[in-house]
């Protein structure tokens, strides 16, 4: 198949149902992955450092209005212990993720990043939501290597419905932060949910085309999983579209997006996500890795906190220890004939585009 896909061709592929055609898509994406990023699967140790959040996003169980959720914030000592575990397991990166929590201050997090960089050889990825440029700059100067900020959908109307905010420029503001991150020297990660209520096939195709426009270093795509304690889960906020145009939030649709993303962004690091494993615990991650992905994110969060980081319910592996998770994923990766990556596993750019 031709991998120089137009947006119209991308939309045709996300609508595709023919099994033979999809097998060709999987084969082509896997071959592109092999040629551009190799056989290594890089392990990013996830540390969910806080479930506090000031935002009211319509799909997320961490939203500020969810009063039934017990909140936590990890200590510096707990985070450092997780980072040292990552070294012991052979991971090259730790990913510190939180709700948009302003109890995590600029200077406190900068100190944590400095300690991780001083005491280990790990790359540090941050996912702290929308933060002011001066905070992002301080964390970059402290040694943070990468930053993840999903734009979730390229449809501004749908974005603003599911991200209520006083700003009329909400979608544009988030994209401006992605631009700031690139200017500050971060490796920039973003991504979308697949099958958000109100997301059309054309909108999803535009999401994928947006990945290409932004030349992202990391791209995370996962299925939308409903949380019952959210407006979107209760069907209170959504863009009304014709039912036949609604993108399904299925495992199959997510694999299509992973494969197409690999074809149009061949050098990007693409995870096979926990959400895929939640839909298919037996082989969801493996199938993602065989259809374009090259990263997995084993969970280092202490077990006592994992169930409280409930972006969506019934996440895979929330009761496994970090040790169990490490051994399980290593075995799964080797079972499909892939190798465990070493080092930080950053993007290797062959022809970097100019920033947006």
Walk me through this protein's architecture.
The structure is a single chain. By secondary structure, the chain is α/β, with parallel strands linked by helices. The protein has one domain (7-340): Aldolase class I (TIM Barrel), CATH 3.20.20. Helix content is 40%, strand content 12%. It has 13 helices and eight strands. Strands 1, 2, 3, 4, 5, 6, 7 and 8 form an eight-stranded parallel beta sheet that branches. α3 (76-89) packs parallel to α4 and α8 runs parallel beside α9 (251-264). The longest helix is centred in the first third of the chain and has 18 residues, at 19-36. The two termini are 29 Å apart. The mean pLDDT is 94.
- Main beta sheet strand tally, sense and closure: 8 strands, parallel
**Beta strand count:** 8
Which CATH class? Alpha Beta
Write the CATH architecture name. Alpha-Beta Barrel
What secondary-structure arrangement, pairings included, does this model have?
Layout: H1 7-15, H2 19-36, E1 40-50, H3 76-89, E2 93-98, H4 106-119, E3 123-127, H5 133-142, E4 146-148, H6 156-162, H7 170-183, E5 187-194, H8 201-214, E6 218-223, H9 251-264, H10 274-279, H11 284-289, E7 295-296, H12 303-306, H13 322-335, E8 339-340
Parallel strand pairs: 1-2, 1-7, 1-8, 2-3, 3-4, 4-5, 5-6
In short:
By secondary structure, the protein is α/β, with parallel strands linked by helices.
């Amino acid at each position: 198949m031709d991998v120089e896909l137009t947006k119209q061709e991308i939309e045709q592929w996300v609508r595709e149902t023919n099994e033979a055609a999809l097998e060709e898509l999987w084969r082509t994406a896997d071959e592109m992955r092999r040629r551009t990023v190799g056989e290594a699967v890089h392990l990013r140790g996830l540390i969910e450092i806080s479930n506090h959040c000031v935002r009211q996003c319509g799909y997320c169980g961490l939203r500020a209005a969810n009063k039934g959720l017990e909140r936590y914030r990890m200590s510096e000592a707990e985070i450092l212990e997780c980072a040292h575990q990552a070294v012991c397991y052979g991971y090259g990166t730790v990913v510190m993720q939180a709700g948009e929590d302003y109890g995590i201050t600029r200077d406190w997090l900068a100190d944590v990043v400095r300690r991780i960089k001083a005491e280990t050889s790990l790359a540090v990825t941050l996912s702290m939501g929308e933060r002011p440029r001066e905070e992002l700059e301080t964390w970059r100067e402290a040694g943070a290597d990468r930053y993840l900020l999903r734009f979730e959908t390229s449809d501004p109307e749908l974005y603003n419905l599911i991200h209520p905010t006083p700003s009329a420029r909400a979608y544009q503001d988030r994209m401006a932060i992605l631009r700031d991150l690139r200017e500050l020297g971060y490796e920039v990660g973003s991504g979308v949910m697949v099958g958000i209520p109100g997301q059309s096939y054309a909108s999803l195709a535009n999401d994928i085309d947006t990945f290409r426009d932004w030349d992202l270093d990391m791209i995370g795509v996962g299925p939308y999983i409903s949380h019952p304690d959210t407006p979107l889960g209760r069907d209170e906020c959504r863009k009304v579209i014709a039912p036949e145009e609604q993108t399904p939030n299925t495992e199959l649709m997510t694999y299509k997006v992973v494969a197409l993303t690999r074809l149009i962004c061949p050098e990007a690091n693409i995870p096979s996500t926990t959400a895929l494993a939640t839909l298919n615990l037996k082989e969801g991650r493996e199938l993602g890795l065989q259809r374009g992905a090259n990263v997995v994110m084993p969970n280092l969060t202490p077990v006592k906190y994992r169930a409280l980081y409930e972006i969506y319910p019934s996440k895979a592996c929330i009761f496994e220890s970090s040790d169990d998770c490490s051994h399980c994923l290593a075995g799964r990766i080797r079972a499909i004939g892939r190798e465990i990556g070493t080092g930080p596993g950053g993007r290797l750019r062959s022809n970097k585009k100019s920033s947006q």
